Amino acid sequence: MFKRYCPNCKKSLNWELRRKLLKQEVVICPWCTKGLRFNFKYQIVNGCVYGAVIGVFCITFFDLAAFDVALIAIVSGAFLQKYLDILFPLEINRSL
Ligand SMILES: [Zn+2]
User: In this model, does residue 68 exceed pLDDT 60?
Assistant: First the structure.
C-alpha cells in the first residue's frame, strides 16, 4: 500500500527519497531524472479532509469558537499536512 511509483517512468521510489520531500529538498527520480513533488490535487483534498477532521475533533472534545477551530486547523495543517500528502502519489515537477 505504501509503495509509490514515479509518475513518469512508473518505477518504485524508496521511502528515503520521498522523505526528502518532507524536508522540502528537491527530489529527482533516480531512474528517469524527472523532478518530483507532492500532487497538488491530493494536497487540496488532504487539506479539506485534515481541516474537517481537526474541526470535528476540536468541537467534540473542546469548547472552542469556530474561529479558534479554523485557526488551529490552518496552523497545525501547515506543519502536519505534508505527512499526509506523502502517502499519496506524487506528480512530475515541471518547474525544474
Ligand atoms: Zn522516474
Answer: yes
